[in-house]
Write a structure and sequence with these properties.
The chain is α/β, with parallel strands linked by helices. The chain is built from nine helices and seven strands; from the N terminus they run E-E-H-E-H-H-H-H-E-H-E-H-E-E-H-H. A three-stranded parallel β-sheet has the order 3-4-5. It has a two-stranded antiparallel ribbon with strand order 1-2. It has a two-stranded antiparallel ribbon with strand order 6-7. Helix 2 runs parallel beside helix 5. The longest helix is centred in the C-terminal third of the chain and has 16 residues.
């Protein structure tokens, strides 16, 4: 996933996105092509306001388009509108995650890669984050979700890839993975 967004280097192979070889493109060009990335850590600018963080997500847009997209983010996350003038570093963990998701949505990506969006969040906030991920899917976005809460991830996905020690051990439809008793015991804790 980090190779797709070019946070890590590609050593061999190619990355094809939307029928284009993006293997050697810089991260900013990948964003313009429609790839959004929500890192697990350091995913906001704490010394900027909520609104400034969102504006950065639309850095390549005209001012009127930035305003329209910020308003769409506020529709998805009304709490961010209330906090728009606060420094992002003063937000709670869940609010920071909402802001990070909102900033990714500013570029209107076709594909969004979420790296552990529930990490370190209270259970109530995890439910809210997964509700947002569901809404984003309903908007027609493709999502790659890397998540330790495998059951929750599979409940909110079409396909699942189960990995152990960095190796793929199984790929199947999420419904099939969730209904397998053996897999439930081994991987999902159910």
């Amino acid at each position: 996933m980090k190779i797709i967004v070019r946070v890590a280097s590609l050593h061999n192979g190619r990355i094809i996105f939307d029928e284009n070889d993006i293997s050697h493109e810089p991260p900013e060009k990948r964003i313009l092509r429609g790839i959004g990335y929500l890192p697990q850590l350091n995913n906001i600018f704490p010394d900027l306001t909520v609104e400034e963080n969102l504006e950065l997500g639309g850095y390549h847009l005209a001012k009127n388009e930035i305003r329209d997209r910020i308003n769409r983010v506020y529709e998805l996350f009304p709490l961010l509108k209330e906090r728009r003038r606060l420094l992002a570093g003063s937000l709670s963990g869940g609010e920071r995650q909402m802001l990070a998701i909102g900033r990714v949505l500013m570029s209107d990506p076709k594909l969004i890669i979420f790296d552990e969006p529930s990490a370190g969040l209270a259970p109530k906030i995890v439910v809210a984050i997964f509700d947002v991920i569901k809404k984003i899917r309903e908007m027609g976005k493709t999502i790659i979700l890397i998540e330790q809460l495998a059951k929750k991830a599979l409940e909110n996905s079409d396909r699942g890839v189960l990995m152990r020690s960095g190796r793929i051990v199984l790929i199947d439809e999420s419904k099939k993975l969730l209904s397998s008793e053996e897999l439930g015991r081994t991987f999902l804790g159910i």
